[in-house]
What does this fold into?
Amino acid sequence: MGGLPQTGLTYEDLRAFPEDSLRREIIDGELFVTPAPSLRHQDVVLRLGSRLLAYCEHRGGRVFVAPTDVYLSDVSVVEPDVVYVRPENAGRLQRDFVRSAPDLVVEVSSPSTRRVDLGRKRELYERFGVPEYWFVDLDADRVEVYGLQGDRFAPPTVLTRSDTLESPDIPGFVLPVDDLLGPPEE
It folds into this structure.
């Protein structure tokens, strides 16, 4: 790690790491490093990203897939799997990152990230006012949708393969969960 401490890190420290296939994020100054995700994980990210891109081409807004930095503070910079920013919030887009809370953040589960995605990251997104957080649970073949109510996420709405994913923050966006998840793993 080049002698850098693992806590008390800032965005400048994060940018000093070498370009490699590892995902590095900091949450409250603590470093989290994860390897490249599985092929199924990437397939789901691509499915969602492409559907949101098609939506953006007709309705506006921007969608990004990892690796894209979301700069919430100098000590909290994460790379969600998918990020959506509504057209009216385009001012949050900087040259190198999304500054402030995107309108939607999506994390797709991986064995190495599950605990952080549902714990530290969910809490971080809540604290910084992300209006909607989707956790795509590949092990359970479902999507957990967390919506901000006041300053807290309400208990999640759990969607299974027979359900349809929609969002009040993305009017007109509709995606069957079965299409998102792709063929079941055997």
Q: What stands out?
A: The domain at 38-181 is CATH 3.90.1570.10 (tt1808, chain A). Confidence is low (pLDDT under 50) at residues 1-5. Residues 49 and 144 are 17 Å apart (CA to CA).
